[in-house]
Amino acid sequence: MALKVLLRRTIEGVGEVGEIVKVKPGFARNYLFPYGYAALPAADAMRQVVKDKEVEAVRQGRLAAERAQIAERLQSLTLTLEARAGEDGHLYGSVGVRQILDAFQLRGYRLIDRQVRFETVRELGEYECAVALSTDSVVTVKVWVVQDATDALSMAEDIAKAAGAKAAGAKAAEAKAAEAKAAEADPVAAAASEDATDAALDA
């Protein structure tokens, strides 16, 4: 059964200061009443409504100033998240709101999941997430999902090895082609050249 309470401060998703709203008894007993955010709508509580609204106006002004400062900092922020991915850029897992929240926390921003709007991604790349500081203050933050540093180093080493093997193969092929051309012109000199080439490659 719902309980009627008088809000002594504005609570998002519940109501504005001075309103009489219906809430679950447990919510009122465990949260609203202990913190002084609401009271039973008795005569003495109703007489406090004007004062409560003045206090709330001051609080909302302070919160608005704080949100403006945070919004300004967020607008220049870029989040970079490392993730494991294949050479095609496809992630082995995914990056979602949980990873975004962790990235914000590492930078000193404590947000909750309902404040962050971000579609789960499964590819490396550049994305955007929306951060709702309030119902009328939403900031867009750039997000880069990049290859995990360890995986990136391993891939670079593999590419370097493959390039080295390809270069060595090309060099050997060029040497064989030169030997074949020389053999057509001077069989005796070609034999000597082949021996010299083999010696150089062995070295």
Q: What would you note in describing this structure?
A:
The model has no long low-confidence stretch (mean pLDDT 83). It is built from six helices and nine strands. The protein is α+β, with helices and mostly antiparallel strands and 203 residues long. The longest helix is centred in the C-terminal third of the chain and has 37 residues, at 149-185. The strands form three sheets. A four-stranded mixed beta sheet has the order 4-9-8-6. Helix content is 51%, strand content 24%.
Summarize the structure.
The protein has six helices and nine strands; from the N terminus they run ββαβααββαββββαα. By secondary structure, it is an alpha+beta fold.
- Through-space gap between termini: 90 Å
Strand content: 15-25%
Profile the largest sheet: 4 strands, mixed
As a percent range, the share of helical residues equals 40-55%
Tell me, briefly, the overall form: rod-shaped
Sketch the topology as an H/E string, one letter per element.
EEHEHHEEHEEEEHH
The whole-angstrom Rg is: 34 Å
User: Total number of helical segments?
Assistant: 6
Structural class: alpha+beta
Give the spatial strand order of the biggest sheet. 4-9-8-6
Mean pLDDT: 83
Number of strands: 9
Oligomer: single chain
- Give the uncertain stretches in residue-range form: none
List keywords for this structure.
alpha+beta, four-stranded mixed β-sheet, 6 helices, 203 residues, three-stranded antiparallel β-sheet, 9 strands
Give the helices and strands, then pairings.
Elements: E1 3-7, E2 20-23, H1 25-32, E3 38-39, H2 43-47, H3 49-75, E4 78-83, E5 90-95, H4 97-106, E6 116-117, E7 121-123, E8 125-134, E9 137-147, H5 149-185, H6 187-202
Helix pairs in contact: 5-6
